[in-house]
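Q: Hi! First time doing this. I have a protein sequence and I read that you can turn it into a structure. Is that right? Here it is:
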Amino acid sequence: MNNPTESLGERIADFTLPEGCLLCGGELAVRATPSGAHTYCGHCHWISHPHMRMSRHGLELAYSTKAAA
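A: Yes, that's right. Below is the predicted 3D structure, encoded as structure tokens:
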């Protein structure tokens, strides 16, 4: 899942981040499109829609809080 693809004229990049899951530390699958990023952990089955930013220092995924208990 590390090959950028092009679908319907839109650029899509699929890649994985080893130990990237915020909840369990499992491998995180990431799909990045011009409309944003979507992630999935195959280990704990967590699905998220983080904010993604790329810079010369690397890739940053930021998760906003939706609720607090």
